[in-house]
Amino acid sequence: MAYKHGAYVGEVPTSIIAPIEGTAGLQVILGTAPVHLAKDPYGCVNKPILCYSFKEVAEQVGYSDDFKKYTLCQSVDASFRVFNIAPIILINVLDPAKHKKVLTGKTIAVTNKQALFQEEGVLLDQLVVKSEDGQTALVKDMDYIATFDDDGFVTITLMKSTVISSIQVSGVAIDPTAVESTDIIGGIQVSTGEETGMEVIRQVYPKLGMTPGILLAPGWSQDPNVAAALQAKCEKINGVFTCECFLDIPSGTNGAKTYTEVKEVKESLGATSNHAYPLWPKGAVGTKHYYMSALAAACTAYTDANNEDVPYASPSNKNLRITGTVLEDGTVVDLDQEQANTVNSFGVTTALNMNGFKLWGNNTAAYTSTTDPKDRWLACRRFFSWWGNNFILTYVQKVDNPGNPRLIESVVDSENIKGNSFVARGFCAGARIEFLESENPITDILGGKIQFHMYLAPYTPAEELKALLEFDPNALKTALTGGE
């Protein structure tokens, strides 16, 4: 170390701004990740992985800008880079023990004791490095060190002083193209009871103590089977919880290429649930193309977090932070307000450029089949789901207590105090609870059943603001005659 005498300064990299946090719109995202870049490629498969930062994602499941191969990464990018919102829960279904391919041996030149193995998805634990003649296997961490470069290729650094002009390299790599929609949907293995794909959603609450707010599978939800499974998973999570799912209307082959085709394609997708929020087309930030569900879910979670983590405001007309809208093949889509409104009339949300792209649409997939405000409007539907989940989480501690007047009063008083607070803060028009004798016959009381009646009135979105313009001749006359 150099001898120092005097005063010195140093600089450190600028700290990344910490993301804002909120759980009302907690995203539970299913898809594929570049697990070969993770600390434990085999330990991040079919598990709910909670991440509060981009760094945590990179360590736990890996990260790549190749959104087509690694679909989870578009939600990671949208959440942490575009909106800076946390946390998210990732469920990676790419299994390196199953979705893999063998890499045949290659002879690679060594320069300055380094060689570059230009293959993607290499699993370092299965990398085989041999001498120039292929007769001697080199030992990892003794003869060489293998690391990934910025492009995801493997850099092999030789550690011994012996001059070697080339080496032979082979191994195994993950194969994201081997993942199918059935892997996303998942199931339960009869022999082991292991849960995969969407069945892992059940583990979110018992493992992490959190309830899903939004389910999504960008890059997969445009498949009718995946869309159907996502809609089914929104209800009765762990037997009691409810949430919503964001779906992508396909815009590629057999998809909607124009706004007039969206209705037919939505119907082909089977998007009909009051818990589903269909979106079309895709969004772009420069050269990066995202499925709209990834952007809209991040935008919704961000909106909630900026509203005291209460999901009362619609994400519609909020800044989507994109530079354009595109089809699957990258074709630019430029909608005007009338065309975007037509898409909305199908019960589908889109994006509209009004001095910056905004998310545009309030309807769930159930529209136009229902006009019930709690099922038609996404903001109202999410408010009902969120309130119901909170009720369960709050009062499960009182289950099995004596069913006396004190218990009933404590629930009624607590909920009404909370409801009055929400009304005062403008979150809703009304929120009150009652214990009605007519809904609690003595036979139910004797059977250990107590029922409360909750009245919720979340504000519906002001979708149409209209002003009537009328010519005022009297004002003109006054101006010209001076009021005489």
Strand content: 15-25%
Say how many strands there are.
23
Rg: 28 Å
Overall pLDDT, averaged? 94
Q: Tell me the number of structural domains.
A: 3
**Largest sheet entry:** 6 strands, mixed
* Classification by helices and strands: alpha/beta
Shape: globular
Poorly predicted runs: none
Q: In whole angstroms, how far apart are the ends?
A: 95 Å
Q: Any guess at the CATH architecture of the largest domain?
A: 3-Layer(aba) Sandwich
What name does CATH use for the topology of the largest domain?
Answer: Rossmann fold
Q: Please give the oligomerization state of what you see.
A: single chain
Brief overview:
This protein has helices spanning 54-60, 72-82, 181-185, 204-208, 224-233, 262-269, 292-305, 337-345, 373-376, 378-395, 405-424, 442-446, 473-481, and strands spanning 20-21, 27-31, 48-51, 85-86, 88-92, 100-109, 114-117, 128-130, 144-148, 154-158, 166-174, 186-188, 195-197, 214-216, 244-248, 276-279, 282-285, 288-291, 324-326, 350-353, 357-360, 428-434, 453-458.
